[in-house]
């Protein structure tokens, strides 16, 4: 890979252009690294205390009874953000939309089971399970085949 860096006063802010003939795992990693620099922190509420959540530990985030909850093992921690906002923040960590109300971490998936209606049942390493609706099954399979799961799992 060839890297060119041009430092000049005519540039008001940094801009990155990648020229290639095809998408690769290497490019996926580069984009993830670049996005990490501008990442927000996620704060959760548990037992009337504010806790700082490590996105790498979150298995999935879901909406239930007008609340957004992050699942870490057996803990469900309330997050005071909209689901689409959390999706944007967590995307560089391997999260994808599972359904209208669930965003899941692909790096915590242990196995899948196909349901009779075309949905996938996802089992996480902790034993928790969630469903991926048919609408999102293909994009998640494509991402996993492309290398969506990290080595640090």
UniProtKB/TrEMBL annotation:
Keywords: Cytoplasm, DNA-binding, Transcription, Transcription regulation. Residues 42-146 form the HTH LytTR-type domain. PROSITE patterns: HTH_LYTTR. It comes from the Bacteria. PANTHER family: HTH LYTTR-TYPE DOMAIN-CONTAINING PROTEIN, TRANSCRIPTIONAL REGULATOR-RELATED. This is Response regulator, LytTR family protein.
